Amino acid sequence: MYRTVAQLDAVAAQLVATAPDLCTALPLPQSSIQGTPVSALRIAAPDGPPIDRRPGVLLIGGTHARELMNPDLLVELAVDLVAAYRNGTDVVLGNRTWPAAQLRAMLDTVALYLLPCVNPDGRTYVMTVDDMWRKNRRDNPGTKCDGVDLNRNADILWGVTEGQTSCAPCTDIYCGSGAFSEPENKNVKHLLDTYRVDHFADVHSFSELVIYPWGHAANQTTDPAQNFRTVPTGTCRPLGKPGYAEYIAPDDLAEFRTVAQRIVDEIAAVRGRRYSPEPGMTLYPTTGTHSDYAWSRHLADPALHKTYGYTIETGPSGDDAREAFHPRDPEPIKREAESGLLALLEVAAAG
Questions:
Q1: CATH node for 5-350
Q2: Is there a contact between 50 and 76 (Cβ–Cβ < 8 Å)?
Q3: How far is CA 161 from CA 89, 176, 218, in A?
């Protein structure tokens, strides 16, 4: 039911072969920890502004290995966009129809970057050995425990063990030996470093959420001096600052809220499921996440491009974790999530 890593790669390769005017393979500099080559896919129409002048959207999935449906979702999104552009085919997602002409106009304006499976070794392990595996397949020296949680390994308060982040290798939330220690995460950083990315989304499961910064502390809009750049990293301790709240500019917070609500509304249009838009801290505290890192980059270094970062948690929670992570029928969830991602693409195209 779910595609293997080879099958995901085959879909991307077929798109590049059949629509070379739209689709470009972007081999990434790092193979996975077990040596699997990794490529991203760019979809951009040949008409319109040069690639480096277009708003960019980067979508990634499969960060956590057991969340099987999201890499499939991303390659299916790519197929639908190419069909809409080449064949004039509307994208029908339950009760929501995205007209081909609208999608064509979006691809004339935006560069879409897709990294469907960040963690190919983990996915293979889930599909062949342990269907609840979460991390990559790093061998952690001096322990009997393997793997790093790739969504705790980015360079935003790395190693600050706030909430659901740990320095213990045997936990599912192990942050690794250093920020961006993992080759899979270096690939995500490479895409952000190399291409213009205005909007970023890391697609996860589960909980029916559209998450925006911050993940490590509550948001506040009045004290710019209270910000992550003043917090020691790599401490393997919690923040330890009672009452600490992270600054976010009022205009940026308003933008996050508006766009998150737009994504939520387009998800609901498919079959009525109401995802919740909320800061990451509302779910549980975390550090080192991809979406917070994407947003934090321009704050840590004003020379870097400003990227609005989101995490989308597809599908409902429930008593059966396996069913929540890789449901027997993922199709309705994938359709609604695709509509939400098209909303993000639409936001980018509108500028």
A1: 3.40.630.10
A2: no
A3: 48, 12, 16
Backbone dihedral angles phi then psi of residue 43, each to the nearest 5 degrees? -120, 120
pLDDT in tens, 37-54: 999 999 999 988 999 999
Tokens read off for 84: 């809409």
Supply the mean pLDDT for the chain: 97
Closest CA to 143 of 119, 179, 174: 174
Q: Which amino acid is at 319?
A: D
Percent pLDDT > 90 in the chain is: 97
Kindly tell me the number of DSSP H helices and DSSP E strands found in the chain: 10, 12
Q: Alpha-carbon distance 243 to 115, whole Å?
A: 37
- For the residues 175-182, what does the mean pLDDT come to? 98
Q: What does the pLDDT look like over 126-168, one tens digit per residue?
A: 999 999 999 999 999 999 999 999 999 999 999 999 999 999 9
Q: In Å, how far from its chain's centre is CA 110?
A: 18
33 within 8 A of 136, measured Cβ to Cβ = yes
Q: Is 288 left (phi over 0), alpha (psi -120 to 50) or beta?
A: left
DSSP strands (E only) in the chain: 23-27, 39-43, 56-61, 91-93, 96-98, 111-115, 199-205, 209-212, 218-220, 245-247, 276-279, 308-314
> At residue 206, does pLDDT exceed 90?
yes
Residue pair 63/38 in contact (Cβ under 8 Å)? The answer is no
Task: With residue 221 as reference, give the H or E element that holds it.
Answer: none
- Assign 331 to helix, strand or coil: helix
Sign of CA dihedral 4, 10, 15, 21: positive
Going by C-alpha positions, the residue among 175, 176, 65, 71 that lies closest to residue 121 is 65
With 0-12 / 13-18 / 19 or more C-beta atoms within 10 angstroms meaning exposed / middle / buried, residue 202 is: buried
